[in-house]
Design brief:
Layout: H1 2-20, E1 24-31, H2 35-53, E2 57-64, H3 66-74, E3 81-83, H4 87-95, H5 109-112, E4 115-124, E5 144-145, H6 153-168, H7 173-185, H8 194-202, E6 209-213, H9 214-222, E7 229-232, E8 236-240, E9 244-246, H10 248-254, H11 257-266, H12 270-278, E10 282-283, H13 286-291, E11 300-302, H14 304-308, H15 311-319, H16 324-330
Helix pairs in contact: 2-12, 3-4, 6-7, 7-16
Pfam families: SBP_bac_11
Signal peptide: 1-22
Family: Belongs to the prokaryotic sulfate-binding protein family.
Length: 333
């Protein structure tokens, strides 16, 4: 009897140990144009985590327009981590349902943004419309492809970059608003996300210029589309610092905080920073950035905080209902 009881206890302990080391799956809810980036990041992280801990973890990805993705998380999508393209989308998680703490930015280096990027142009080979700067997007006869700023952080950055360009030229707010009206009069379609806008331009053949993140332009102009497209860098642009965060309520409910934290910490390691650079994003690590310096053109940039005060102010002024963007497209047709 004693032997039998001992055997039962041994088997039970074995099952418990097996469950403790059962595969853990994380869900990374991210924005539109990072599919390829996180596919490579995930593979590297899984291997690194297995080597360091002996435990197996897998990562699933969800991609879409940044703001729409954030809304999905507030409505119940069980994201262990979010990797968005603007702080407003993570602030939304703090404000609606307290899914993350208000001080989420302070929990990782560089305000929780493992890389930077900016807004540049992709044009057809030879640049037949001679597009060089933001002012050219407002010219009659130029078709401009931009993601919808109401649903996409990509589109929001493009809108704010154009506004900031005009303001730096000494324009009043009214003149900047008229400038945006002229640009969006030239926009034939407003895709909900950045990758949709890229598809519209590169595959559907719509437009003379695509305004999007530098990494998306790099992907197209250095990849199979190199023979058909080329990058154009404007005189000044907006610095994008895409942030990341654990979704606290989800990881605590699922018991995945340790793995989720390791995943985000991994983004700041030299190995992950190298992958980031290979995907045409500007790494935070100084050594990795220096190694790839020739791949990133020097460009004058400004931040949302410098030009607009804060993301909250920019959101309220430009993208809330009745804001300057709604005014810019109200009489578009």
């Amino acid at each position: 009897m004693a032997v039998h009881k001992k055997l039962i206890i041994t088997v039970a302990l074995g099952i418990a140990a097996s469950m403790a080391h059962a595969d853990t799956t994380l869900l990374n809810v991210s924005y539109d144009v990072t599919r390829e980036l996180y596919k490579d990041i995930d593979a590297a992280f899984v291997a690194d985590y297995k080597k360091k801990t002996g435990e197996t973890v897998s990562v699933r990805q969800s991609h879409g327009a940044s703001s729409a993705q954030a809304l999905s998380v507030t409505q119940g999508l069980q994201a262990d981590v979010v990797t968005m393209n603007q702080p407003n989308d993570i602030d939304l998680l703090a404000e609606r349902g307290q899914l993350v703490p208000a001080n989420w930015r302070s929990r990782l280096p560089d305000a929780s943004a493992p890389y930077t990027t900016t807004m540049v142009f992709l044009v057809h080979k030879g640049n037949p419309k001679n597009i060089k700067d933001w002012s050219d997007l407002a010219r009659p006869g130029v078709q401009v492809v931009i993601a919808n700023p109401k649903t996409s952080g990509n589109g929001r950055y493009a809108y704010l970059a154009a506004w900031g360009f005009k303001k730096q030229q000494g324009a009043t707010d009214a003149q900047a608003r008229d400038f945006e009206k002229a640009i969006f009069k030239n926009v034939p379609v407003l895709d909900t996300g950045g990758r949709g806008a890229t598809t519209t331009f590169t595959q559907r053949g719509i437009g003379d210029v695509l305004v999007t993140f530098e990494n998306e332009v790099g992907l197209m102009s250095a990849g199979p589309g190199a023979k058909d497209f080329e990058a154009v860098y404007p005189s000044v642009s907006l610095l994008a610092e895409p942030p990341v965060s654990i979704v606290d309520k989800v990881v605590d409910k699922r018991g995945t905080r340790k793995e989720a934290q390791a995943y985000l910490d991994f983004l700041f390691t030299p190995a992950a920073q190298e992958i980031i650079a290979q995907h045409h994003l500007r790494p935070r690590n100084a050594d990795v950035l220096a190694k790839h310096a020739s791949e990133f053109r020097s460009l004058k940039t400004f931040t949302v905080e410098q030009m607009f005060g804060s993301w909250q102010k920019a959101q309220q002024t430009h993208f809330s209902d009745g804001g300057s963007f709604d005014q810019a497209v109200a009489d578009k047709n």
